[in-house]
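Deliverable D2.4 — example input (structure tokens):
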């Protein structure tokens, strides 16, 4: 095996220094600060802090609104992941069969991955607008029936659809790559045996896609908990009646609007622990059903 050899030993740390500096500045340092703030009482406008131990966590866990944000976050994560992966798999199966116009559809489906979450929320704000968007036609049939600012279930549905739309492109890329890695001889042999496309998908393709399923399940659930702020902020603002006040959005609203920096830091630590626990559960109990060979 070939290895890279540097004439001067100082070149290696010099090349690694920019990346390590970025990671330390934007990841490790903020995480350490959040961990410290979670155990102290920070003043809103500076002026020192007071060590309070686990009081911030007790306050957060005794807040009924916080448990409401946990509940809606779990619903959002599961619904978004299921919808995004289902749509991505369906689209990947159609593209893999090389139906008419599949090259155009393949490029068009990938584009949404480059759209930022706030832009997605802003776009769907126009789509779901009760007065001017596509869904406004519902109100022409039944006046006042569709309004995100009045009905919590509609607001939750809206952020789930927007979040799933954003994640479809990422899942589609991996599903399509996994489908194209399946030897054509297997699908052709199944077709010659009389298996129709649906039967080939269930008995042949889906079992071979389990590693991709597991990978996307972990990534999409983690992304649903951590990258949903932009969609909620621009689409619903956490309303109506805190119906879409996800955990990541509550951290922002309590910290930057309520100036409760310590409580927001405690919530961020809880969110991090929740994501780690969910990831552990997936690797512990779901990965055993994955067949890599």
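Example output (designed residues):
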């Amino acid at each position: 095996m070939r290895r890279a050899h540097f004439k001067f030993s100082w070149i290696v740390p010099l090349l690694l220094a920019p990346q390590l500096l970025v990671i330390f500045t934007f990841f490790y340092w903020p995480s350490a600060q959040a961990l410290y703030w979670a155990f102290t009482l920070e003043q809103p406008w500076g002026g020192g802090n007071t060590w309070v131990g686990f009081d911030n966590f007790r306050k957060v866990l005794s807040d009924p609104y916080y448990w409401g944000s946990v509940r809606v976050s779990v619903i959002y994560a599961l619904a978004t992941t299921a919808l995004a992966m289902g749509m991505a798999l369906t689209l990947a199966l159609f593209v893999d069969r090389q139906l008419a116009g599949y090259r155009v559809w393949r490029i068009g489906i990938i584009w949404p991955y480059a759209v930022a979450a706030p832009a997605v929320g802003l776009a769907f704000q126009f789509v779901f607008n009760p007065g001017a968007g596509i869904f406004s036609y519902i109100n022409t049939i039944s006046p006042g029936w569709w309004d995100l600012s009045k009905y919590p279930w509609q607001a939750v549905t809206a952020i789930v659809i927007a979040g799933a739309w954003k994640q479809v492109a990422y899942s589609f890329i991996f599903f399509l790559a996994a489908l194209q890695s399946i030897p054509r001889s297997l699908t052709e042999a199944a077709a010659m045996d009389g298996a129709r496309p649906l039967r080939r998908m269930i008995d042949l393709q889906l079992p071979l896609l389990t590693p991709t399923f597991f990978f996307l399940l972990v990534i999409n659930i983690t992304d649903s908990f951590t990258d949903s702020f932009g969609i909620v902020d621009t689409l619903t603002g956490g309303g109506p009646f805190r119906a879409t006040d996800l955990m990541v959005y509550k951290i922002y609203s309590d910290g930057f609007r309520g100036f409760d920096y310590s409580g927001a830091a405690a919530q961020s630590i809880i969110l991090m622990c929740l994501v780690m626990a969910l990831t552990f559960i997936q690797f512990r109990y779901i990965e055993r059903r994955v067949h890599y060979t």
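The mean pLDDT is 87.
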